[in-house]
């Protein structure tokens, strides 16, 4: 009998191998962006067509390739990043396998243009199905541009396996976000079908986080920064009030590589214990830097899983560092309204965390001891007993609800956050409403100066909180219209409205379908003027569509934001003193009273001592 084992032709072997590296357009996005970063680029542009199914193009201004290297780069196991097996344990680059471009060329049509600064001309290569179709010299700027076209054109089974454009685009934005977060000093842009979605100027990590994850985190980030001989950790975690019901904005990077680690995620979550409810997820963007010999990055084809030499130390360190950061923040009041006496008695308030103490803590024995003992210091959850009481008082359990509500009403004491005792009162002369300015701002005197409340931003915050509660609990009461109004919509809008109808009902809007593209508005929330229903719903849809290009938010989040924007008091609306007082009271009863849902401030504070200084010049 003849022998039957044959070597597979290169292009088939490559296609099979590519399956591990390139699963969807987003995988190519990750590989190409990482190559650009490894090439030392300071400007990286990503262009997408048809959610990456038609085109993924990355243009960088990095160091480019010679003609030979350009050709070599598509070979399997061809890399400039490691030479020996030892190098694998000292990796500082994102790439090291020499597989990405070979894989891409096996399953798509690729056009590469590349030029080094020292070369007169660049190289152009066209390749598909692992075969070079064309190679010539081109005039071009320094750097590299790679276009991957028609992914899986030669593997229809895999092409059919791709998800909807919206889903694939979401994966692309995820990968883009990860790389852009870990290199804030690099300019990045992302355009899809000719429209720019992100334009990220080079800056620092904090700016990059706000650009990518949203300004809702403005003034809501707590810095984490600890150094030891063994490892460093830095980055930001969100204040507890920014925790979300969905696990979204959580990022770990080890030596700048994004990784998924349920184990380290657990370490962060445990640092938040008692501060957030069990079903919500804090935001974090944390970077761990340690000697590459202590990490094995070569355990998974997509490099998103890694193995630590000693996982327990890392866990303990992450947990301690986050706890430490949160503890520092918790004792720094953010608003100097007069503090309620029982809160003032908390030792943490009486002894504010000064710069002096902060640096003492940072250089203190905690973290030094940590490396010596290979064990993290355990920071006692401060003053749990007292804070627990405050939490009960303000959040209450269901049975106690009415009593607590009464207490709150009678005392008019509001607290920003159960764990972090920042508090203010609005029921007496300590917050005196003075005037409405330009029918837009409310001027109020406080004990330490004055504040200017932005009436629209404040009202949006109030509405947002009410709607959020309505969405998760008791629906807002509907006031039935005396004369139900019909609404005719274009098909696209009518699809949107149909999708939202159920949630809208929860928010007090009773809308029923009435034939093709027609609806009847049976009722609206009580505070909407009768006769206005049609305009209100139309504007609401407009607002919703405006938010819907935002991939970050869930349908409900977008709806709540739209309704609160739409129903809010606008500039130009005159308010009575009673209305202003009510607005201020309601605002400061909100947990996040200092910012509107979009992160912009609801009020500005001017303190006497600042004013003094300004007048002294
Ligand atoms: N944008 C670029 N600019 C300059 N050189 C590049 C660029 N992209 C790729 N290269 C060169 O091509 C080689 C092959 O790239 P490829 O992505 O296939 O492998 P790698 O980055 O070395 O490893 P990995 O497979 O882990 O990504 C790289 O080692 C690098 O020398
Ligand atoms: Mg690579």
Keywords:
single chain, about 625 residues, alpha+beta, 8-stranded mixed sheet, 5-stranded mixed sheet, 21 helices, about 25% strand, binds adenosine-5'-triphosphate, binds magnesium ion
What structural category characterises the helix and strand content? alpha+beta
The hetero molecules present are:
adenosine-5'-triphosphate, magnesium ion
Largest sheet: 8 strands, mixed
Instruction: Label the overall shape.
Output: globular
First-last Cα distance? 100 Å
DSSP helical segment count: 21
Helix-residue proportion? 25-40%
- Mean pLDDT across every amino acid position: 80
Could you give the count of β-strands? 24
Q: Detail the poorly predicted runs.
A: 331-429
- Mind telling me the C-alpha Rg? 29 Å
The spatial strand order of the largest sheet comes to 5-4-3-6-2-1-7-8
Strand content: 15-25%
